[in-house]
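Meet our chain:
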Amino acid sequence: MHGLKILDLSRNHIEILPNSISTLENLTTLLLGHCSLLKKVPSFSKLQALKKLDLERTNLKDIPHGLEKLVNLKYLDLRCTQIREMADGILTKFTNLQHLATYSIYNMFMRGEEIGELKKLEIFKGRFYALKDLNDYAKALHSHQKRVPRQYRIFMVLGPHMMFRYCLSPIVVDLCEEAALFSWVIPVPLNIFSSLSWIMINSCKNIKKLFSSNCVLQKLQNLSTLEVERCVDMEEIISSEPELEHGTSALKFSFPKLRILRLKNLPKLKSICGANGVMVCDSIQQIEIISCPELKRIPLNLPLQDDGQPSPPPSLRAIYIRPKECQELVEWDHPYAKSLSQPYISEFYSVLDCDSWSYWKDPSKNVVRDSR
């Protein structure tokens, strides 16, 4: 047994892990995920060869003794446990950590500065104390020129008992009318989030503007999915900035990789990118505008064919507008845009299931869901 390297006890009805486990000094993988009755484990201080530790959905209330000794850890999963805090300084000892998952309604809050110190981190799923910690995280990455994680699911909260589904959901941000969320949350000079591919804003009150123009121009070139839902005060997706809108030519906002644009239940939304802006989305597959009664204009740039005539983006599959009467009220920039887009417009739809948990495992898998 002392030569054992992988021990998988997942989904067992064990309450106490035997002390003999602490002597397995050659163990590199210990999987205890979904042992929902597990409430006590021995010291891990001698398991210094351990590279993967999965404690997801166990009943542990405290960080295991000796966890700070596991300096070779590459994978640590503490999701959905009863653990509420991790002592300051423990995380920074895990210099080889590549995957860190800590989120749940009972789980601990993380310090942005500490997460930013993990140089090899590729995937982070966790909860920050506040928006300030997101900025601290971004600054730490920037100042030390750290590798940006491939995935991050970030929760920012006001209290310890709130439940969330997605990034930035649901928080109350008291911004002035002129402030745009992503120019405030993520400092404009930093390009840390330029690799961000998926943004979902859900049920955020008091946010009137999502992006500043500069934020879009500098940071969102890799964005593939943008979803904004149930933000009752949202008025603009990209804020209008008079200094950028002078002149007669259209202000172009390029989203070269954007596939999904989903705007739902935004009763005050009046503009996507201002009166003089257009979105260049040559990879767009699906546009959804559901229950946005004040939105009258879809600022989609139509690429030109070889003969100089406009055409819908070649990747476009569907445009879903609901309620149906809004389909006739929508204005398009180009005189031919409405007729060219008409074959793609529908009231009912099936969507790429980018908001499911499976999306995080493999974003390339497009699961079709009928929403009628």
